[in-house]
Every structure is written in structure tokens, then in C-alpha cells.
Amino acid sequence: MDSAPAAAAGGVCVCTYVFAVIGVVCSAYVALSCLRFVCRLVKVYALSRPLHLYADLSKMGSWAVVTGATDGIGKQYALQLAEQGLNIVLIGRSPEKLKATESEVRMRSNVQVKTVVVDYSGGREIYDDVERELAGLEIGVLVNNVGMCYAWMFDEFLDVERDLHLRMLNVNMMSCVAMTYIVLPQMVERKRGLVINIASLAGVVPIPFMATYSATKAFVCFFSRILEQEYEEKGIQFQVVTPGFVSTNMTSQIDVNAWCVTAETYVRSAIATVGLQSRTAGYLMHELMVAGFQLSSERALCKELKNEMIKFKAKHCKSE
Ligand SMILES: NC(=O)c1ccc[n+]([C@@H]2O[C@H](COP(=O)([O-])OP(=O)(O)OC[C@H]3O[C@@H](n4cnc5c(N)ncnc54)[C@H](OP(=O)(O)O)[C@@H]3O)[C@@H](O)[C@H]2O)c1
């Protein structure tokens, strides 16, 4: 007579047990993932520089090529790669700024420097000259850094001239593909080389009011990750770097704070991730931003970002 309630109680017990086991397994998985994440951050951002855990870039080849090397992040890559003993090819659109950067590199490091004047907003016609200029150099590192954004940084799609959107495609995407196509064959032949592609946090999450910019940076992320798969067995490393805010001309030299760093600090941190992370935010606080963004729901995040952009723009419009 009592067997039905007893069976029901037994069923409840089994269910409780199963849920408890699932709970423990899930908690353990989350705890282990968090621990792995923290260990990775400690290794990459606290130990890599003092213990020199990152790749020895001077072993990749004797020259490094940096696009958009006359200011901001690109200029810092040029200066800091030269510090590591690599000869540098500086590519930029302004002959005066190239000369100034060349002098700065020579003053700080005893390396060879070559400059190439190119405006990357041009189409395929500009690349034959670039190829000629790079011929004969043993290029170990290519930094696809050149990039442009909107004058305002954030603008509604139709408020930006069509030509500016199209130039952005050339500068941010075509340069990456064409420069990699020029440099990669000799790296493959030597079975050694590193291509660093500078994307953006805006390439990890779609950012409202930055449609074309954000989409071009997503392209750079995919391009890099796919070539990483295709060429890892051939000895070539691809790294995609997704900065948050860095105080440069592109960001109107915004104030430095916990989330926004100088280009010098940023690049010092990012270079120490080479060989440890093929996808990196390059800087601890930016890594936390990426992780936070990836945990959020895309729709809610975009809505929040949209509101923040509107507030940011209103504040800046007033202060102009
Ligand atoms: N700053 C940030 O917060 C941030 C965040 C995420 C991603 N990024 C990415 O980081 C990269 C570097 O940005 P940045 O902040 O260092 O910008 P930046 O200070 O404006 O420097 C950009 C560099 O690219 C050059 N350049 C721009 N347009 C060019 C063109 N059409 N042809 C040839 N060279 C050109 C600039 O030359 P001039 O000196 O002649 O202008 C300068 O040397 C970009 O790909 C950007 O998208 C930056």
C-alpha cells in the first residue's frame, strides 16, 4: 500500500542527486575555466616581460615592415621592434612624418631604416610599387597596422560620405590582404615569420555608429585567424590584436586612464604577448573588456553601447 509514495520519494531522491551532480560538475567547469583564464592573464601580462616568455622577434628575419608607421600604435611597433634589433621599413603617406620617424628610430636604435611613401586609401595600383620597394629584403615581421576611422569616430552610417566608407575598406582591409600577399611567400620559403594584424575591440563586437569601421575590423580578425590555421604548419605565426582605447590621433588623444593607455605602454604590453596568444587584446584591461563583452548578450550589449555612444557624442558636441 505504501509502495507508490515510497517510489515517488525514491524518484525525488534520484532527481535531487542528479541535479546535485550536474550542479557540482558545472560549478567545477566554471571554476576551472576562470582559473585557466586568470593563469593565462598572469602568464601573458605579469610574467611574460620579466621572464621573457614571448617570442624572440629578431629570430624571425632581419627586417620588420610596419604600415601606418608615422604615428600612434604603428610608430611604437616600429620603435620597439627596432629596439629588439630588427631593421625597419616604415610605410606611411607623409614624407615629412616618415623622415621624422626615421630619425627617431635611428636615434634610439642602431638598425637600418627604409621608408616607403604610400597612401593606402588607393586601390590595387599602389601595391606594385610597394612590392618593388620591399624586394630583396629578408622580412621576418609584418605589422598590418594602418587603419582609419571616421572624423568623429562615431557616426551614423548615412552621416558619413560614401567615399569615406569606401576609403576605409581600402585602408583597413585591402592593405592587410595585399601586404600579406606580398610578404608571405618569402616567409613560407624560409619557414619562419610573423604577421601581426591590428584589428580592434570593434572587430570583436559590432559597435553601433561605427558600422564600416567595426565591420572592417571583424574582417581583419577572421582573415588573421584563418591564415593562422592555413600557415601554422609552414612555420608562420599570425597574431590578431584587438585594442580597446589607446590615446592616439585616431582617438583625439583622449585622456589616459585605467582603460585607455598611451601607444607606448600599449605596444610594450602587446609585443610581450607574441608567441603566447594568437588572438590578444594586447593589454590587461582591454582583455577584461573583451572577456566581459563576450559573456554578454550581443543584443543587450549593442543597445547599451548605442546609448553610451549617444551620450559620448552629445558631450563632445557640447564641448566643441
Ligand atoms: N587608438 C585606438 O584606440 C585604437 C583602438 C583599436 C584599434 N586601433 C587600430 O590601431 C591601428 C593604429 O591606430 P592609431 O590609433 O595608432 O591611429 P593613428 O594615430 O591615427 O595612426 C595611424 C597611422 O596610419 C597612418 N595612415 C592613416 N591613413 C593612412 C593612409 N591612407 N595611408 C598611409 N598611412 C595612413 C597614419 O599616418 P598619418 O600620420 O599621416 O596620419 C599613422 O601613421 C589602426 O588600425 C586602428 O584601427 C586603434
From TrEMBL:
Keywords: Membrane, Oxidoreductase, Transmembrane, Transmembrane helix. The chain crosses the membrane at residues 6-32, 134-153, 165-184, 196-215. This is Very-long-chain 3-oxoacyl-CoA reductase-like. It comes from the Eukaryota. The keyword RNA-binding does not apply. Belongs to the short-chain dehydrogenases/reductases (SDR) family. PANTHER family: RH59310P. It comes from Priapulus caudatus.
